[in-house]
Amino acid sequence: MRKLNDLDNDYITLTSRIYLNYPQEKILKDFVYLAELGQINAIIYYYQMRGRSKLKLRMNRKIETYIDKKTIATYFEKYAYFNKLSAEIRLLKDKKTFELISLYNNKSRELAELRDELENNYQKCPNEIKSLEKKFLIKQMECELITAELRGSEFVKILKDICKTAEMKLNSPYINFSDRLTILLQLKTIYSKYGVILDGKWNEKLLVDFGRKIKSAYEKNPDDIDIKYAFAKYALEVNSSCLNRILANKIFEELANRNFSEKLSKYIEKKIKKSKNIGKNIEYTSLI
To answer: How far apart (Å, rounded) are the C-alpha atoms in residues 12 and 225?
Structure first.
């Protein structure tokens, strides 16, 4: 089983602060610093924040160089690349895919409304039912045409590759608990959003089985960082019973209050010092 390194632990510290509702702007800088050091989950978080309307996160060239289409190989690298594409779509750098996804979402919503109308109004007269059925078939055909076009896009191709790679990763005996849960939750989100396009369906049993395993592991080894973090994350995101939620918050408080690793601490100190020096230079030159 893969052991957590210092930067993985820093990522857990920061994500624990998210679960405790620390101000996002306050911890975003630390996530960027961690991503600059190459921590893959922090890189993913960086891309997830890029292009969000409430946050002004500029493009970071150092982070951008870590994820390249030609070099991605592992599951998390592929997932990071997918989030990179998603950020480009949000920022309208890929207008075609943005328009296709927007159109697909609108047509799918209209199709769902027609389906509900058909199911809830079965007592209507035959002519009204036929009219609704005709509208439904037309809308269904429109959705299928958009879906067919989306399936040829790089966005959907990388999604399919992610799902395939995830299956292999989850079957590995070397994957740790926190990585396994992260992948399961990411797959659940992917299938809930793009299941129709991917011709796939989420299997909730995977999370149920994980729940049994992580509970047993936590009872046997409650001091293991990987296990306790995965247990708390599962408790809040999947099984939010009152007792589990209270315990999860206690775990996150403990993890969030830790100091950063020496590597990240020194890097942050270096970046802050460099930033202050740049500020001094700007102030000096402005006086000339």
So the answer is: 9
Whether the model pTM is above 0.90: no
pLDDT range class, residue 13, cuts 50, 70, 90 = very high
For 207, half-sphere exposure in the C-beta direction (CA atoms, 13 angstrom radius) is 17
- At a CB cut-off of 8 Å and minimum separation 6, what does 149 contact? 100
Split at pLDDT 50, 70, 90, the class of 124 is: low
Q: Convert the chain into a string of H (helix), E (strand) and C (coil).
A: CCCCCHHHHHHHHHHHHHHCCCCHHHHHHHHHHHHHCCCHHHHHHHHHHCCCCCCCCCCCHHHHCCCCCCCCCCHHHHHHHHHHHHHHHHCCCCHHHHHHHHHHHHHHHHHHHHHHHHHHCCCCCHHHHHHHHHHHHHHHHHHHHHHHHHCCCHHHHHHHHHHHHHHHHHCCCCCCHHHHHHHHHHHHHHHHHHHHHHCCCCCCHHHHHHHHHHHHHHHHCCCCHHHHHHHHHHHHHCCCCHHHHHHHHHHHHHHHCCCCCHHHHHHHHHHHHHHHHHHHHHHHHHCC
90-118: average pLDDT: 88
